[in-house]
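Hi there, hope your week has been kind to you so far. Please have a think about how the structure follows from the sequence. I've dropped the whole record in just underneath, so have a look:

_____
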Amino acid sequence: MDPSSEGRMQKTTSIHPRTRLGPVELTVASLDRQIPFYQDYLGLRLRQRQPGQAELGVGGETLLRLIELPAARRVRGTTGLYHFAVLVPSRRDLARVIARLLSRQYPNYPTDHLMTETTYLDDLEGNGIEVYTDTPEDGTFSFAGGRFEARDAQGNLRSGRDPLDLDELFRHLSPSDDLNERLPSATVIGHVHLHVADLAEAVGFYHDGLGFDTMGLAPAFQAAFLSAGGYHHHVGVNTWLGEGAPPPPAGGLGLRHFTVIVPDQAEVDRLRERLRLQDAETAAQDGGFLSHDPSGNGVLVVAQGA
């Protein structure tokens, strides 16, 4: 496709640029185990709990909703959540999270992606989590010829997956910093990254259907990255578990759905009609609609304030 025509297509079909992500909803086996983990290790606040479910977040915003199903079990090798990513406002906030995890000897993997500094970990039931802050001043990553490429601010080619310099990061902390301090109110869900069965089908759903712009399509890397408003990515998809991976069985642990928040009801209605034209199911829920990508990953679309 001619690049100029691709740009015109994206401009006329893109999801609203002020789109952002909202709560991630997970099936868990034990609220009694998971709630303390997300409070004490990740730094979220318990916003409400009732029989069989809980909401955690920051300030007045829910970032995570847990639905308890005691019989649920983890099934490996299926589509679903690779990780959900919690975006913190600054390096200092990231340093506090990593220092807290290290002080508790909880396994995590600090990584320098140049455009972001991050750490990866799993919760107590195997759900993948990324905690990161954006650092575009340090470099860029792109997909040249369908391959992942990272360059630092001086233009030098880098792996984009180097270990994070923790000595430098921890300089953003002072001796008086409380490692147990909760995440700041400006923390949001930055992106979700999903295992899918087919890359082209997933891009067809998230780009052609919902209208996220394709920021990087890398068949050799077996991944694609999509976003609204020019962000590096709000949705990542990969086939790292193999082409044709099956969806998880009903009642399994893991992702129920993630939330896409658009500015108004008109945009909700427009996106629902786009998915209907793709013959994708759209069920009314929470003032918006719930759909599933071709690999069975749930997506809830709602208007801001719904």
Q: What stands out?
A: The two ends are 38 Å apart (CA to CA). Residues 135 and 167 are 17 Å apart (CA to CA).
